[in-house]
Amino acid sequence: MAETENIFLFVPNIIGFARVVLAIISFYFMPTNYIIATWCYVVSALLDAVDGHAARYFNQSTKFGAILDQLTDRIGTTCLLATLCIFYPAYAFWLQLSMAIDIACHWIYLHTTLLQGKTSHKFIDMSENPIMSIYYTNRTVLFIMCAGNEAFYASLYLLNFTEGPTFASVGIFRLIAYLSAPIAIIKSAISILHGYVSCINLSIIDVKERQSKLKDN
Q1: 124 pLDDT exceeds 80?
Q2: 168-198 confidence digits (pLDDT tens)
Q3: What phi, psi does 166 have (nearest 5°)?
Q4: Which residues are marked as active site?
Q5: Which of 11, 72, 149, 172 could lock onto 164 through a cystine, CB 3.0 to 4.6 A?
Q6: Cα 98 to Cα 184: distance, rounded to the nearest angstrom
């Protein structure tokens, strides 16, 4: 009898656990110590790329690892935004809205993808759109979008403590916030599009299941 693999001890999943620990440390220090919080948050985010390479190198890709990555990403961003709600109460509504869009649209997108099973021509595939195709297939574009989104919220966090080094009489963190704001807005718009298309695809699944039940009856 073949020995059962312990996927929890796979290298990419161990890296994933390290990401969780670093994220928790970051959350603890976010309100008081921006240096520790920032370093832990950034290292946790960078390890997201490392565990992907490790999964391919060691041939240890798992569904658990993929879900762990997604949850760590979503929770990390959500907790950062929760802290920003405390720092910038006047903008709490928009920060809460950003959290809601991020969580809801990612959740329904992943859930619908699992329910779809095999790819069907009847489902809406956003990768057929030339603009969305670039988003899905070009790693550089995807990295810029994700990094830009994180940079926007991270710079807002840092601005509560310091402007950072100045460049052309403007604090570097403020400059990053200005430059990355459009990326964060576009990223939220893409998330909304994901959510909308996922709702359409979920309705297709519902209709097919209802038709199947009616036939059986």
Answers
A1: no
A2: 888 999 999 999 999 999 999 989 988 888 8
A3: -90, 145
A4: 73
A5: 172
A6: 10
* Long-range contact pairs involving 94-103 (C-beta distance under 8 Å, separation at least 24): 98/184, 98/188, 101/188, 101/191, 101/192, 101/195, 102/74, 102/77, 102/78, 102/188, 102/191, 103/74, 103/78
Q: Please, are residues 152 and 184 in contact by the beta-carbon 8 Å criterion?
A: yes
Per the listing, tokens 């990419």 go with 12
167 or 105: which carries more pLDDT confidence? 105
- Is it the case that residue 121 has pLDDT exceeding 60? no
The helix (H) or strand (E) run that includes residue 215 is: helix 172-216
- Residue 170 β-bridge partners: 167
For the chain, domain boundaries: 1-87, 91-217
**Contact present, 144 and 183 (Cβ < 8 Å):** yes
Task: Return the CA Rg of the chain.
Answer: 20
Q: Which residues contact 23 (CB under 8 A, 6 or more apart)?
A: 40, 41, 44, 72, 75, 76, 79
Instruction: Retrieve residue 138's tokens.
Output: 């070009």
Beta bridge partners, 171, equal 166
Look at the block and give the residue holding tokens 């570097």: 172
Residue written as token pair 């670093």: 22
